[in-house]
């Protein structure tokens, strides 16, 4: 047997010299002991390629490790003039030629001695790990890992149980305090299951993480399961490494984005300061109203942030991705088609801002709605009526119709309140004028200067329409002022003994009695009757 092996070795060397040295492979063929690469071959030998040569040596080494009486010290190296061999008890393990030495930085005897030292070390450790004693130790270590894992799981369960108990106790105390203050406790009771479920989910996640980390530790104990441990760790470590590398590579772009954001932010702060000063009246700009300051600031802020996003977009991670660009286009189209009414309201809001038809607090009339403006933004205007009804009106509706502002001129010119009465033709018009003016002057909230005035607006078939016009600076009290004015008109006409009634109603009265309260009727008043002339035929 020994002779045949050396004959084979001689044939291999002969083929090497016959065909010359072959090209060195770019990637080495590994020689592996228990999933661990000990060294690599970069050249073939004889008819064998480097990969086939390494495979043959791997099989020989596995046979050696399986022997119960294996002794690494029995590995020896022999150097001849053209070849070096490593044998175990006269059995050939591998041969090193000058071609192998040419692929390294060592000469052939040195390379052979290096391979021998590596094999003794690796095979010795592998044999020790395969021994019964080492296996018993490995099993005990695995049991210890499982025991530690179970203890940690028990501790985690105890900690979360304690947290849940304290949470329930604190929750009951809080609910009791809320109940004492009259607050609805049903909402707090509905939140409790959510919080407890979050605690439970946190506990389960921590336990799963511990089990996942314990598995590689247990697999690393046994040599034949080390690749599994390495694979499990790679599932966690590789993504983390990729994230860290991506963050490091992204730092220059992040610094650029930070500089652009800070410049935009401080520019917006400067514009806000200027707008606030204009609004407060600290300084003015010709033909620029103070109430334009904040809306203009909001518009400029939106434009600056939009410009900042356009500049920053190329620096965002994944901005050059087709998927990212496709999603961006889809969202833009979706926003365009789905917000046409909103966009129209926003544009109307901008136009109304600079038209200045009203401001917050003004008493206005929009369509059939009369009330005070309590909110105004780019989309809607909210009006509170005299009945405390909050009505939301889209800005596009306001822009498309007429708006009456009762407050804008009430302070400098005065708001004119007007109401009408109809009096028969038998009443002197100058007396009616004076009675209406007196009623207006007696109304609290009506200005004495300018003085109220009367218009005769219609000459009807049976009566005349008189309209009293009076100035007021209290536009928000229109309803109460009208009520007081009507009361005073009744009082003044009753005091003058003049009824406010059209003549075509008088035919329905019994005896033509005057239609005013009895307190205003004089004592010598007599109810008139019908005058009948009777001729004496005799």
TrEMBL record:
Ranges of residues in domain Mechanosensitive ion channel MscS: 342-407
Keyword Repressor: no
All residue ranges annotated as the Mechanosensitive ion channel MscS C-terminal domain in the record: 419-500
Transmembrane segments: 136-156, 204-224, 247-268, 289-316, 328-355
Keyword field: Cell membrane, Membrane, Transmembrane, Transmembrane helix
Single GO MF descriptor: mechanosensitive monoatomic ion channel activity
Family: Belongs to the MscS (TC 1.A.23) family.
Full protein name: Mechanosensitive ion channel-like protein
Membrane topology term: Multi-pass membrane protein
Localization in the cell: Cell membrane
Keyword Transport (UniProt): no
GO CC annotation, single: plasma membrane
Domain Mechanosensitive ion channel transmembrane helices 2/3: 298-339
InterPro entries for this protein: LSM_dom_sf (IPR010920), MS_channel_1st (IPR049142), MS_channel_C (IPR049278), MscS_archaea/bacteria_type (IPR045275), MscS_beta-dom_sf (IPR023408), MscS_channel_2nd (IPR006685), MscS_channel_C_sf (IPR011066)
């Amino acid at each position: 047997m020994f002779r045949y092996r050396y004959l084979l070795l001689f044939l291999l060397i002969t083929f090497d010299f016959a065909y010359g040295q072959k090209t060195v492979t770019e990637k080495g063929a590994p020689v592996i002991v228990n999933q661990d690469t000990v060294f690599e071959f970069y050249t073939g030998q004889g008819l064998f390629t480097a990969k086939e040569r390494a495979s043959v040596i791997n099989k020989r080494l596995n046979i050696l490790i399986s022997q119960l009486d294996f002794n690494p010290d029995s590995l020896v190296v022999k150097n001849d003039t053209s070849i070096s061999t490593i044998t175990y008890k006269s059995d050939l393990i591998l041969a090193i030629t000058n071609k192998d030495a040419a692929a390294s930085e060592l000469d052939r005897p040195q390379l052979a001695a290096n391979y021998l030292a590596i094999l003794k070390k690796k095979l010795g450790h592998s044999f020790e790990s395969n021994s019964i004693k080492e296996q018993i130790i490995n099993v005990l270590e695995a049991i210890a890992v499982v025991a530690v894992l179970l203890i940690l799981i028990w501790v985690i369960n105890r900690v979360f149980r304690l947290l849940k108990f304290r949470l329930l106790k604190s929750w009951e105390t809080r609910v009791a305090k809320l109940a004492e203050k009259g607050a609805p406790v049903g909402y707090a009771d509905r939140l409790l299951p959510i919080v407890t479920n979050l605690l439970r989910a946190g506990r389960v996640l921590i336990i799963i993480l511990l089990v996942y980390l314990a598995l590689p530790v247990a697999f690393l104990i046994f040599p034949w399961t080390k690749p599994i441990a390495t694979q499990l760790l790679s599932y966690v470590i590789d993504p983390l490494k990729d994230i860290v590398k991506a963050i490091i590579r992204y730092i220059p772009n992040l610094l650029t984005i930070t500089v652009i954001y800070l410049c935009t932010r401080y520019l917006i702060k400067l514009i806000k300061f200027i707008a606030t000063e204009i609004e407060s009246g600290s300084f003015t700009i010709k033909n620029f109203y103070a109430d334009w300051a904040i809306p203009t600031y909001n518009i400029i802020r939106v434009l600056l942030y939009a410009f900042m996003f356009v500049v920053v977009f190329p620096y965002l991670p994944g901005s050059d991705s087709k998927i990212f660009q496709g999603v961006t286009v889809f969202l833009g189209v979706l926003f365009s088609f789905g917000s046409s009414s909103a966009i129209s309201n926003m544009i109307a809001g901008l136009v109304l801002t600079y038209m200045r038809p009203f401001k917050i607090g003004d008493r206005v009339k929009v369509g059939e709605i009369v009330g005070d403006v309590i909110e105004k933004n780019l989309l809607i205007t909210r009006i509170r009526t005299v009945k405390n009804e909050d009505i939301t009106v889209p800005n596009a509706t306001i822009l498309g119709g007429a708006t009456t502002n009762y407050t804008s001129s009430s302070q400098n010119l005065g708001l004119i309140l007007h109401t009408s009465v109809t009096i028969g033709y038998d009443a002197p018009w100058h007396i009616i004028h004076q009675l209406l003016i007196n009623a207006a002057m007696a109304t609290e909230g009506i200005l004495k200067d300018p003085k109220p005035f009367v218009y005769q607006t219609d000459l009807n078939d049976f009566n005349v329409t008189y309209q009293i016009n009076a100035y007021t600076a209290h536009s928000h009290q229109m309803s109460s002022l009208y009520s007081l004015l009507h009361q005073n008109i009744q009082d003044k006409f009753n005091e003058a003994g003049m009824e406010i009634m059209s003549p075509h109603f008088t035919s329905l009265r019994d005896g033509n009695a005057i239609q005013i309260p009895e307190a205003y009727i004089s004592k010598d008043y007599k109810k008139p009757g019908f005058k009948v002339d009777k001729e004496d035929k005799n």
